[in-house]
Each structure stands twice: as C-alpha cells, then as structure tokens.
Amino acid sequence: MSHDDTSDPSERLTNLAHLSSAVGHHVINAYSAIVSNAEILRLTARSNVPADPVALADLIIRTGVEASTVARRLIDYTRPVTQIGESPVALDALIAEVVEAHRGDSRSHFSWTVAPGAVPSIRGHVAQLRAMLGHLIRNAEEAMTGSGGTISLSTEMDDRGWIALEIGDTGPGMAPELVERAVEPFFTTKNGHMGVGLSISNGIWRRHRGTMALKSRPGEGTRVRLCVDPKEGGLPGLR
Fold first, then answer.
1. Cα(87)–Cα(84) distance, integer angstroms
2. Top CATH class, 87-233
3. Helices 126-143 + 91-103 axis angle, to 10
4. pLDDT tens, 94-124?
C-alpha cells in the first residue's frame, strides 16, 4: 500500500472528496482554455479552410461547457464532506502535535526543525488540517527516502500581514517543469504512488481560504508555503 492510502474509511472518504474537488477544478481550468481557444478559432476562421471552422468551434465550445458543468456538479457533491467549520485552530499547537506523532514513528529517521512563530488562530476543521500536514510531511519524507535529511516546519506573519505556514525538506529538489505540475491530481514521479498528497493538501487549504506555493530547485530541497489572509481565515479578536 502506498503512503497516499489510509485504512480509516472516514479519512479515505474525506480525502476522496478533496481529491474530487481538486480534479474538478483542474478539469474546469483545462476546459476554460479549450473554450477560449475555440472562440478565437471561430472569430478568425477563414473561408478557404477545408473544414467548417465555425461548426467545429461550436462543437468544441459546447463539449467544453458540458464537461465543465459535470465537473462543477462533482465539486458541489463533495461540499458537505469538506465544509471546514468555524472552530478556532492554533496552528503552532497543531504542528507540535503532528510532529510529535511522526517523531514517535519507529520508521522515521529524519531530523526535525520546528519554529512556530506567533500567529493568530484560524477558523477551520482541525482533523482536515491535521490530515493536510500529514500529507505534506509524508511528501517531505518520501523526497528524502534512503538519504535521510531534515524536515522543517514554521509559522510566521509575512510582509503582507498574512499568516504563513511553511514545510520544507532537504531532499533532491525538483526541476521547474516538475514544480509547475506538482499539485496536479495523480501527477507523480515515484513508482507505486498515486500522486494525490499535494492535491489533497491544496484542496483542504483552499477550503480554509488559503493559497499554496511551492519553491524548489534541484539540489536545494523543496518548500511548501501556505498563506492565509487573517481577514479571511483568522478569528475576530485574535488578529
């Protein structure tokens, strides 16, 4: 069984819901590009083209819109499972809890650097955020499999006044073309893995009104930076 799997049926259902949402968004974006290009084709069609470009463009547009509608229905279907709630979640305490659990795993042979800065609590679902951190830590561990290394976690307020949570590893890093695709559902360079950890994590964090960014270069490890505007994800009176 790969590290992307889980034996807990409820967690599997929640992960499936987040994954379905990520797949839906990915398909919608792809079809948006199809529709845009087809509209350009329709506007620039010339009479000397052998096929009927207008009819072809109409077909592409219609197919794209219909597929996009199906994807949106898939996203709507998953919403009840992935509602985040309004409970206060202290990210520094959650990080300490998750790291302690991974440190206690007899299979773990990595070093840890934990630097929780003073950040406000956010509104959210603690179980989903715990699962998100678990996926990101497993990704970091897998990047350093066989070589050891250090996993770092930190929180801070960035220059914009946003809450920032960062998870890093000292693995081999990724080339730019891999960084661009890393969050795509089912994209992986590892045999025996499904390539859904980052996609699920991104789906969970997006539902907590946050953004995810990856920074990586060959030989320099990888950092995943999660940011959220306190006005969106923070709690009144705790900013």
1. 8
2. alpha beta
3. 50
4. 999 999 888 876 566 789 999 988 899 998 8
